[in-house]
Specification:
Layout (H helix, E strand, L loop, with lengths): L4 H12 L8 E2 L17 E2 L4 H4 L5 H5 L4 H21 L5 H9 L9 E7 L5 H6 L1 E9 L12 H10 L2 E4 L2 H10 L7 E3 L6 H8 L15 E6 L8 H13 L4 E6 L5 H10 L6 E5 L5 H6 L2 E4 L8 H8 L4 E4 L15 E3 L2 H14 L1 H13 L8 H6 L2
Parallel strand pairs: 1-2, 3-4, 4-5, 5-6, 7-8, 7-10, 8-9, 10-11, 11-12
Helix pairs in contact: 4-5, 10-11, 10-14
Length: about 375
């Protein structure tokens, strides 16, 4: 339960479920992460299994741990992935392959259920190691924009085993069906369940943040998400440099963590942006930072449906997102947000335009404030899966 959009979405789903209607058991590979305390107290958390913990350990540690077969299965997956990359030039798929290879050595998850939800890919665990009358697999990403492509042989069997396939937006559903047309009849859209009142309450805790410098002459931007290639923070750094070079005073705060942090810090240093592009790291409560900024920016290369964008809108902030494939399902351009061209130049031009246009920013903020973003009625679609 590390800090992240999918984890926040899971918390939203659990909060929306009614304990008078359903009995919920939650299985996590590891009982760790800043969002663990946010799990509702009535949810029954299944005890941690050392075998599943080994799925997330560093490979060497997993091999020499008390579950060596899990580590060796992952090692075989690594070799197979490297061989495929060498032969076909297609990278990625280590995570999917490591789960597939490890499943025979993983214990069954205890219990028998009416519905088993696999909330994050890969779905092999729920497919093979859970006993349930019905099974549903969630999709959080745009399949037509996944940079490593899709390995049909690895993924198709798990999707075929699901009774329902749940996409978090219409665009995500369409992108999935393009890749897996045989599964179209199973696909249903259930949006991320988010509570505006919760977001607004949390935004007042510790507001304004002490480590958030704001002055009237500087445009303050904020983004949130893992430090990965998909989120486009490398593009944001270069866009920030362009904005400063054009004479615009800007300070950009990034909430998150992830594997690309060393690369991003190097890029920040090379562009002399230490005082203007600031990696704040993990924040369990990002909402005071969103509330304090002038514009919330999502510079992603691709998204399913970014939870943070909707949360910023709930706080009545003007939002700018890059023109990724599913951007149109995220907001309405020039109504409750602004869609800039993708890439460094597009981001820079969009931020410059919105930064100088106070009237448009206010209009976007007013429209966001007036919209009803609560979608807790989506929970009825979850009940219908039963």
């Amino acid at each position: 339960m590390q800090i992240g959009g999918v984890e926040r979405s899971l918390v939203g789903l659990l909060e929306a479920l009614d304990p008078a209607k359903v009995e919920v058991y939650l299985f996590l590979y590891a009982h760790e992460g800043e969002f663990m305390p946010m799990i509702p107290s009535w949810v029954k958390i299944i005890p941690e299994s050392p075998s599943y913990v080994a799925l997330g350990l560093p490979l060497r540690q997993a091999i020499f741990s008390y579950r060596p077969w899990i580590g060796l299965a992952r090692l075989c997956a690594k070799f197979a992935t490297a061989l495929e990359e060498k032969m076909s030039g297609q990278s990625g798929f280590f995570l999917s392959r490591s789960h597939k290879y490890a499943v025979p050595f993983l214990p069954k998850i205890p219990g028998e259920y009416d519905l088993a939800i696999s909330f994050l890919m890969p779905h092999d665990i729920v497919w093979k190691n859970v006993t349930a009358q019905k099974k549903a697999g969630w999709i959080h990403t745009d399949y037509t924009s996944v940079e490593t492509g899709v390995n049909l042989a690895l993924e198709a069997p798990a999707w075929a085993a699901m009774d329902k396939i749940v996409a978090v937006s219409d665009e995500v559903a369409k992108s999935f069906i393009k890749v897996f047309p045989a599964q179209a009849a199973k696909v249903e859209v259930i949006e991320n369940l988010l509570s505006p009142s919760f977001v607004r309450r949390q935004s007042l805790i510790g507001y304004p943040p002490a480590d958030f410098i704001k002055d009237p002459e500087t445009l303050v931007l904020c983004s949130a998400g893992r430090y990965t290639h998909a989120k486009g923070y490398d593009l944001a750094i270069l866009a920030c440099r362009k904005l400063l070079d054009s004479g615009m005073k800007v300070r950009w705060y990034i909430l998150g963590y992830g594997p690309d942090e060393p690369l991003l810090r190097k890029l920040i240093s090379e562009n002399k942006l230490e005082d203007s592009f600031i990696l704040l790291g993990k924040r369990t409560n990002p909402y005071p930072y969103m509330k304090a900024c002038d514009i919330y920016v999502q510079p992603s290369r691709y998204e399913g449906k970014a939870v943070a964008v909707r949360e910023a809108q709930m706080l009545g902030k003007p939002v700018l997102i890059s023109d990724f494939a599913t951007a149109g399902s995220q907001l309405e351009h020039n109504v409750d947000g602004y869609i800039s061209e993708a890439g460094v130049d597009g981001l820079a031009r969009g931020i410059q335009y919105l930064g100088k246009n106070r009237q448009l920013r206010q209009q976007l903020a007013d429209n966001a404030n007036s919209k009803i973003y609560s979608n807790l009625s989506e929970i009825n679609k979850v009940y219908s899966l039963l």
